[in-house]
Amino acid sequence: MRFDDRVTGDLKRYAKQARVIHLELDPAEINKTQKNHDAWMAQFRELEEQEKAAVMQHDLTPTKEGLTMGEVINLVNQYKADDAVLVTDVGQHQMIAWRYFNYKKTRTQVTSGGLGTMGFALPAALGAQLHDYSRQVICVVGDGGIQMTIQELENFIGILNRITIIFTRRGININALTASESRLEGIHRITIEVTSTEEAVIQLVNQIEKIIDVIKAFYHEDGGVVYQEIALYKIPVTRLDGGLEKIIRQHGARIISAEPEFVVLELTGHKEQTQELLEILKEYGLLEFARSGRVAVAKRMLTIDSFVK
Ligand SMILES: Cc1ncc(C[n+]2csc(CCOP(=O)(O)OP(=O)(O)O)c2C)c(N)n1
């Protein structure tokens, strides 16, 4: 509470029986109406020394085996950036983290405050990171609180699930799907190949864009993208003869691994090319075959940057 004279009124009559602890952010307010903080401060300093000896000493330099919570936060202090943001959940770790975290800057703490809801920290930390990718965000949670929202860590898989549901509901088959990082940190790209009508694909794109984590969904026909697929073929080494070598050369494939019992060939190209080689290699005792989805970049000059602030 602020001890403004508008609050206290006549000081001679204000809370005469009370002993007051005045915590204040504004130095100008100290000693303005409530006096005699010096005695309090002296007592606090004495108690602080007692706390250091009785509590902090044991937390930070324990004699027992194993890490204490205080030691963990102390280690964090050694590596953290000065403007790192500390997000805590609710519980014992919260008290310890606040006690030992080496705050160097203001606006570096996120807490659920009086609401005290376990499960707060992880989504709050993700939110803090989304707000500013350049800042280090440190999330401290107890083993109880982490159980409540740990599924947030599956965010990326979550997206794939939600996308798959959109396709399943419409009965549209996904021919191939590739996911990778994009040029922008923290943003992933997913390329999905489907065979369907233009109208259905436009509807799919609109639905996918409604997923909260999706920044933008683009739709391209074959001619609108430059793409490649990679195919791997495993052949028994006993079948490697002059004829097969000629086929490998003709198709522009290459041997990427030679083991005592088999060789692995690799061919990158469009599906027709990798498929053609597949049909030929079936005659050579093909042991295994795997083909990736499309790795594609759009021909249009419009990029994701214009959709990211
Ligand atoms: C949703 C919710 N349920 C219950 C509580 C009551 N509560 C406060 S702290 C706590 C224990 C937290 O344990 P843990 O997450 O392991 O952290 P620790 O105290 O061990 O650091 C409980 C049950 C709460 N604050 N919020």
TrEMBL record:
Pfam families the record matches: ALS_ss_C, TPP_enzyme_C
Protein's pathway: Amino-acid biosynthesis; L-isoleucine biosynthesis; L-isoleucine from 2-oxobutanoate: step 1/4; Amino-acid biosynthesis; L-valine biosynthesis; L-valine from pyruvate: step 1/4
Gene Ontology molecular function: acetolactate synthase activity; acetolactate synthase regulator activity; flavin adenine dinucleotide binding; thiamine pyrophosphate binding
Matches recorded under PROSITE patterns: ACT
Superkingdom in the source lineage: Eukaryota
Transmembrane segments: none
Coiled coil residues, start to end: none
Signal peptide start-end: none
UniProt domain ACT: residue ranges: 148-222
A single GO cellular-component term on record: acetolactate synthase complex
CDD domains tied to this protein: ACT_AHAS
Keywords of this entry: Amino-acid biosynthesis, Branched-chain amino acid biosynthesis
GO biological process: isoleucine biosynthetic process; L-valine biosynthetic process
Record family assignment: Belongs to the acetolactate synthase small subunit family. Belongs to the TPP enzyme family.
Alphabetical list of NCBIfam families matching this protein: acolac_sm
PANTHER family: ACETOLACTATE SYNTHASE CATALYTIC SUBUNIT, MITOCHONDRIAL, THIAMINE PYROPHOSPHATE ENZYMES
Protein name: Acetolactate synthase isozyme 3 large subunit-like
Organism: Daphnia sinensis
Organism lineage string: Eukaryota, Metazoa, Ecdysozoa, Arthropoda, Crustacea
